[in-house]
Amino acid sequence: MAGEIRDLLCWRGPVSVNVFVIGSGNTPLPKEAFHLAGMVPDAFLPFPLLGQPEAIERLGLVSYDIDFDDVSLDLREYTRAVLRRVCANTRAVAWAAFEGTFHYDELLTDQVAHQVYGYCTTGAEPVVEWDTAALRGEEWRRRIAEARAALDALLSASQIRARKSRTD
């Protein structure tokens, strides 16, 4: 794992992979679902986020803090496997971002693109970037904008279904 990425993921001690998923409901997956890529986390902290805007609450938003005590692990493939797992069997958008970057007004926006190091949308392969220079680049911002467009489509479809169910 690149030194800079490891340093960013280890800021509070253990290596912490932080994943957010919208669309899989507000009930977290069990910890066994995160025994992936031959790795078993040392700590697993799932939680639905509070104060969700109505459009997001209909779909559900869960955050996972997944920690490993061994800071020498290369977690790039693990991050990819987690993103794939949380998007499986549901229409969802998920992303991995550095601790402390979450704000409802900035989900997958240009302002936070450099703090997102992976994303996945249902039906697509996860994308993980482990080069901090690439995270600051225009190509990465473009890719995060595509993930945001998928999130906007997911939220829009949810709104349409909600309106339709109220009129039926």
Write the SSE topology.
Blueprint: H1 3-9, E1 15-22, E2 43-48, H2 54-57, E3 61-68, H3 76-87, E4 93-97, E5 116-121, E6 127-128, H4 132-135, H5 138-167
Antiparallel strand pairs: 1-3, 1-4, 2-3, 4-5, 5-6
Question: Could you describe the 3D structure shown?
Answer:
The chain has 168 residues and is of the alpha+beta class. It has 5 helices and 6 strands. It has helices spanning 3-9, 54-57, 76-87, 132-135, 138-167, and strands spanning 15-22, 43-48, 61-68, 93-97, 116-121, 127-128. Strands 2-3-1-4-5-6 form a 6-stranded antiparallel beta sheet. A hairpin with a 5-residue loop joins β5 (116-121) and β6. The longest helix has 30 residues, at 138-167. The chain is globular. It starts with a helix and ends with a helix. The model has no long low-confidence stretch (mean pLDDT 90).
Number of E strands = 6
How far is the N terminus from the C terminus?
Answer: 53 Å
Helix/strand order: HEEHEHEEEHH
Strand order of the largest sheet: 2-3-1-4-5-6
Question: What helical percentage do the residues reach?
Answer: 25-40%
**Which structural class do the helices and strands define?**
alpha+beta
* β-sheet strand percentage: 15-25%
Shape: globular
Taking all residues together, what is the mean pLDDT? 90
Whole-angstrom Rg: 16 Å
Let me know the largest β-sheet.
6 strands, antiparallel
**Count of helix runs:** 5
Taking pLDDT < 50 over at least 5 consecutive residues as the criterion, the unreliable ranges are none
